[in-house]
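Chapter summary example.
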Amino acid sequence: MKTKGRLMLFIMLIMALGLSAITYYGFGQDKQLSINDIKQGLDLSGGVDILYQADKENVTDEEMAAAISLLQGRLDWNGWTEAEAAKEGTNRIRVQIPGVDDAEEAIQEIGQTAQLAFVDEAGNVLLTGDMIKNATKQVGATSKNAPSIPYVSLEFNDEGKEKFAKATEENIGRTIGIVMDEEVISAPVVQSKITDGHAMISGQFTGESAENLAALIRAGSLPFNLNVIQMNNVGARLGADALSTGVLAGLVGIGLVLAYMVCAYRLLGFAADWALIIYIALDLIVLSLFNVTLTLPGIAGIILSIGMAVDANVVIFERIKEELIIGKTLRSAVKTGFSRALPAIVDGNVTTLIAAVVLFFLGSGTIKGFATTLMIGIIISMFTALVVTRVIVNGMIKAGFHNPKNYGFRVK
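The structure predicted for these 412 residues follows.
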């Protein structure tokens, strides 16, 4: 029995050490799954925050999705791989660019409106993006006996249909360039006159690149402009100070929690602390795995979920204490204590999880960051409190620690 208990504790020790090593060192040169691989928000790394608003009240979801795709494409073209564009409200888009110092310069780089045009080889504008009714990714054969490949299908409105028919008739054998903000994104060769209001752009497309091109073309035909209504700079130094302050606050809080649990519950507290270390490591790995952007409110969400994890252990330990007082053995008290604490723990965590889900879907910006880390933390904390802590406590009992006094309980 003692051998089995020691084996259980040894496995938990290896688990804690292994997960801690992963969070610190990660995998490979990029240190994947480590704390260094976690994306940092503007309030931690510094950068630029820009809020755009459409100059039209009734904007459809499709139009907003196209505008977001346009802005994200421009961010990628400028090499801002960590930058993100996201919908906010019904007609606003928030763009966050970590590591950039000048908001006005970033706005000039991104631009405010999508200028799409079809031009001939001499540079003459044949028709503009507002004449395109729709652009979609398709997969099929672009010529007879050809294999199926991804391509972009265009559909013009009545004005565009007429002008495109004239343009293709006059440019057979030549290219018509599709230009977005003075950059050629495609230049297909005209094979014949097209009169049905439909066109096809084929080339060396993947499914993803064809979808991206279709989204850019749709964005170029947006019936509204994007106006900057707010821009903020977050200095890199300010972000670094915020990160160090947040980490320090977290370490102090965790340290006090660890010390309190050992003082109050002795071996049970030590088991809870052991499980808490595993929880923190798992939480950080999941944040890195799912590319969650960490912000200061996000750090607050992590600390709050740590408190909930400890609270679950306190509920369990108090249930065990009640069972010991009525005369049950330690092994029986532990089994019953975990069973009776389960409904209260699940109810408390589920209600908090519901609130976090509501914040995530209805909130934005930093509120969503807080909700994300809180949701992840709640799920992991329930696992560590109900499973990991139980394995450690049972391992201690089987290893020979039978005296209730060693667990902080004073019973007759």
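To summarize the output: The domain at 2-40+235-407 is CATH 1.20.1640.10 (Multidrug efflux transporter AcrB transmembrane fold).
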